[in-house]
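Subject: for your reference before the review

Hello V.,

The reviewers asked for a structural picture of the protein, and I figured it would be easier to keep everything in one thread rather than splitting it across files. Below is the amino acid sequence we used in the manuscript, unchanged from the supplementary table.
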Amino acid sequence: MSADLLARPLRSVDDPGPCPVIETRRLVLRPHQARDAAAIAASLGDWQVTRMLARVPVPYGLDDATDWLKSLQASKGPRWPLAITDGGEHVGTVNLELRHGQWHLGYWLGRSHWGRGLMSEAVAAALASFFGRLPGAVLHSGVFADNPASLRIQEKLGFTVLGCTDIYSMARNAMVAHIETRLTASALRLP
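And here is what came back from the structure prediction:
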């Protein structure tokens, strides 16, 4: 075995490698940076955004954003926490992470950027890159039942609805109906 091969870190078949930088027609998706904390806090401080997320507390402030960014740096597991930037401004997140042996997709976009197709563009680009590296992966996601806009994004990209369960939402402090979805590389439909 060559010294070059020994020097490379080994990657699991379930590891897509380091978080990439992905450019789309209007956006740049990149790893999060400490300077994103204020923009994250502003977006997730908006109830209209946070109420559709399961793992975000209310209220959400700068300390929460800073702590989350630090947790990303400390994380050892396979994940792609991508910052969505528009003209250099942090406007949202696409997160792909391995949890409990399954790949999961989560995402959010600041409300001032809704209605422009940015989330569809960002998620499509992230999924194309992800499946390019892990073509055999199965990706799980879902949406709260009262979030039809997010479900439309997933259906447009080829996600299959598996059913509906109840999950706990930290923001709502309640159980919420959650439509479970799944996607494979062969089912992915890119715009």
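For the response letter, the relevant points are probably these. The first helix runs from residue 3 to 7. The chain is about 30% helix and 30% strand.

Happy to draft the paragraph if you're swamped.

O.
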